[in-house]
Design goal:
Number of domains: 2
Shape: globular
CATH class of the largest domain: Mainly Alpha
Strand order of the largest sheet: 1-2-3-4
Number of helices: 15
Distance between the termini: 69 Å
Structural class: mainly alpha
Number of strands: 4
Helix content: 40-55%
CATH topology of the largest domain: hpI Integrase, Chain A
CATH superfamily of the largest domain: Intergrase catalytic core
Strand content: under 5%
């Protein structure tokens, strides 16, 4: 790897302390940048803005969505900002490059009944150890609105190592989960009654808080081989569980986070509280759930209001030979007729 990239990734890991998944994505995108520059016969410090625009256009023509291109450009922009701070370049070649505008899609959320059905589902044919673990992670995803990266980073209890390495933990006494979200920001989220009961069942099978198993592996959720679960394994387990539970569509972890936000907002209408629970830095990110809430209200209106879908009654047809008599209209007051209205 290019020495400049190695130095920047060290900066990202040690000084900025970005999440592990973000570090992985930065490594991937910057390795791609290095390869593109090498193909063009350029060093990383020599890349011009026109070349960056050409690469963005090539990604778009290859079928990459605007949101994905924006994430790549954001990574490159941060790298070149750091190069400028080191005095290695005069200007940032990515500053004025923008990704194609992506359509604003509403987040996919489950209905309340579907979400509760999934959370209540129990698989009698599964291994009790796996069943208790999967039930607990579903309850935390839906009951606390965690990101999948925050979920896999949870430990059974707080420790100096967890704080240093950006991991979270659960506090059963206070019924709270402490996580480190995007940008290294820590937040505390309440654990609901059902999620608390599911966690206690899982911890009983996993091993008590003071057991040797916790000392060997502090991860809250782990596999049979004793290693911390990965986001991919949680995706697979949740997809399998949603199919077995009879969900109309396969469920992924972020769908439960969307469901959490949408259902809390529907019940409370407190946008600021939902922003704090989700850990959004900007409330505009949270406001997308108000559109989901409006959809919910529109569906309720269509289903309940007697005028929502009722067609206007047709006028009875006049009998042959009958004369239509115009209905009498109230006499207009002086100065209110059409001729007296000002023209626009």
């Amino acid at each position: 790897m290019d020495p400049l990239l190695q130095a920047y990734l060290t900066h990202v890991r040690v000084e900025k302390r970005l999440a592990q998944r973000t570090q992985t994505l930065y490594t991937l995108h910057l390795t791609q940048l290095s390869a593109l520059a090498r193909e063009a016969g350029l060093t990383l410090a020599e890349v011009p803005t026109t070349q960056v625009r050409r690469w963005a256009a090539q990604m778009h023509s290859a079928g990459r969505q605007g949101r994905g291109i924006a994430l790549v450009l954001s990574c490159w922009r941060s790298f070149y900002t750091w190069l400028g701070q080191q005095g290695l370049i005069a200007s940032n070649p990515v500053t004025d490059v923008r990704a194609p505008r992506a359509p604003k899609l509403l987040p996919k959320a489950l209905g309340v009944d579907d979400a509760v059905q999934l959370a209540d589902y129990q698989n009698p044919d599964d291994d009790p150890w796996l069943e208790a673990r999967d039930a607990a992670l579903v309850e935390l995803l839906y009951g606390s609105g965690l990101r999948v990266g925050e979920l896999v980073g949870l430990d059974v209890r707080a420790s100096p190592q967890a704080q240093q390495q950006g991991r979270g933990w659960i506090d059963l006494q206070a019924a709270e989960v402490h996580v480190q979200g995007k940008g290294g920001k820590r937040r505390s989220v309440p654990i609901g009654r059902q999620a608390l009961a599911a966690l206690q069942r899982w911890l009983h099978l996993r091993g008590g808080l003071d057991s040797a198993a916790v000392l060997d592996q502090p991860a809250l959720f782990m596999g049979r081989n004793g290693t911390r679960l990965t986001p991919q394994s949680i995706w697979q387990r949740l997809r399998r569980r949603s199919v077995l539970a009879g969900m109309p569509t396969a469920v992924h972890p972020h769908m439960l986070r969307h469901s959490f936000a949408s259902h809390v907002l529907q019940s409370s209408s407190d946008l600021r509280a939902v922003q704090e629970l989700l850990g959004h830095a900007n409330i505009s990110t949270t406001q997308v759930y108000t559109r989901l809430d409006f959809q919910h209200l529109a569906k309720a209106y269509d289903a309940a209001h007697p005028r929502a879908r009722q067609k206007a009654p047709r006028r009875p047809a006049a009998e042959p030979g009958a004369t239509t008599v115009p209905s009498e209209a109230p006499e207009a007051e002086p100065g209110t007729g059409p001729a007296d209205r000002p023209t626009r």
